[in-house]
């Protein structure tokens, strides 16, 4: 505000007041909360990826979010960050807000899988039979294979059959149950 005073003859005193107005606009605080999400290794991402909600926004601004996550498909830490991209039905409405929008984390959980050797036996003195087993829960694209072996020994008795899996680079994506097999025999060596 500017005030100017002056004196004019004949003895009139007057004051002029000039008011300068400038509109100031303060942003309103608002928060967008994104819900963390997850999937099991090998499954597609959920659709929609996640959900969220806002507080502090005017309903009439029509604020909504679309979600995306950092690329990656391994079931290990770190998690993959989810980003919420906000939009409003009212053009420029988001400029009226000071927005807290931290996103959330997307976790890929290990896929349950197992390996189960088949029982086998042989007669004392014969060569070991080919050992085999069953892989369950592994994704075909990971090309997981098992090599089966038995506890060393050639006397009549029972031996444990176990498995070693490969390739090592994909096994961290699985929660693996390693089963064993034993096959007792009364007529020779069991494996």
Range of strand content: 35-45%
Low-confidence stretches: 1-7
Strand neighbour order, sheet with most strands:
4-9-7-6
Shape: rod-shaped
What distance separates the N and C termini?
100 Å
Summarize, please.
The chain is mostly beta strands. The protein is built from one helix and 15 strands; from the N terminus they run βββββββββββββαββ.
Care to describe what's here?
With 191 residues, the chain is an all-beta fold. The protein has two domains: 82 residues; 72 residues, no CATH class. The protein has one helix and 15 strands. Strands 4-9-7-6 form a four-stranded mixed beta sheet, with no helix packed on it. A three-stranded mixed beta sheet has the order 5-3-8, with no helix packed on it. It has a three-stranded mixed beta sheet with strand order 11-10-14, with no helix packed on it. The N terminus is likely disordered.
Could you list some keywords that capture this structure?
191 residues; mainly beta; 2 domains; 4-stranded mixed beta sheet; 2% helix; 45% strand
Layout of strands and helices, then pairs:
Elements lengths: L1 E7 L3 E7 L9 E7 L2 E4 L11 E4 L8 E6 L10 E8 L9 E5 L2 E6 L1 E7 L15 E4 L8 E6 L9 E7 L1 H4 L2 E5 L2 E2 L9
